[in-house]
Amino acid sequence: MTLSARPLIGVGAVWHRRLRPVVHEFRYGTYFLLLPLRSLRAQPAAELNRNRRGWLSFHDRDHGEGGVDALDWFDQLLAREGIADADGEVWLQTFPRVLGYAFKPVSFWYAHRDDGSLAAVVAEVNNTFGERHLYLLAGPDLAWGREQTAQKVFHVSPFCAVEGDYSFRFERQTDAAGVPAHTLARVDLHDAQGPLLQTSVAGALAPLNAASIRRAFFGMPFMTLGVVARIHLHAIRLWTKRAPYFSKPRAPQHFVSR
């Protein structure tokens, strides 16, 4: 695989629907980065404020175990998990820092083989208690558009027990040149009674440059602060609807679930 991809910015929406015991739904505009980390190692992009200040920026230490090279950490993770064929591009879908501030409820790492197929996907989840957990998806049935499952082991919301299973589905559309043009990550939660939560983040992709950064920033200048504010706002709304409340359990013993 020729490592010549350039960073992209996605503009779209975050969607969330709770099905029971109370119905609660919201959809908000958002934007996110889609970064080809192997290509950026070979040829850094001046338009990406990496580990430095900017309206929008990306900092390696916001991911993994907080080191100075997120891709190096990710390669070591895959090696420890016995995934040896992810020698193609690694795309990281993540929310940027906005004016130096970041909260990233979930980031998605897409590790490709040299032929472009998916070798692994990692959902990197953060909660508001400063904890982080990784759900690693891999295996012969991993492919775009194909459902993957993982047991829920990490506390995210006090209005959901740590039980049940996540179903993941990832979709990617490319343009005539093979450049990603639209992306969708869908994550649903099922418990013993059936479907409980449905969520997604999706957006149209464009090259990351000064113009696209300005459009995103001035279109939603308080995007990151808005994410945190809305988390607490919807928690209050669920509380007023008398949704069941669950105290925070201990973090899972293992950092990675597979």
Describe the structure.
The protein is an alpha+beta fold and 258 residues long. Helices cover 17% and strands 38% of the residues. The mean pLDDT is 95. It contains four helices and 13 strands. It has one domain. The strands form two sheets. An eleven-stranded mixed beta sheet has the order 9-10-11-12-1-2-4-6-7-8-13. 32% of the residues are buried.
Which percent range fits the helix content?
10-25%
Q: In percent, how much strand structure appears in the residues?
A: 35-45%
Tell me the distance between the termini: 27 Å
Average pLDDT level: 95
How many domains?
Answer: 1
Number of helices: 4
Unreliable parts: none
| Main sheet strand line-up | 9-10-11-12-1-2-4-6-7-8-13
Name the overall outline: globular
Sheet having the most strands: 11 strands, mixed
Query: What is the N-to-C succession of helices and strands?
Result: EEHEHEEEEEEEEEHHE
Keywords:
258 residues, alpha+beta, eleven-stranded mixed beta sheet, two-stranded antiparallel sheet, 4 helices, 13 strands, 38% strand
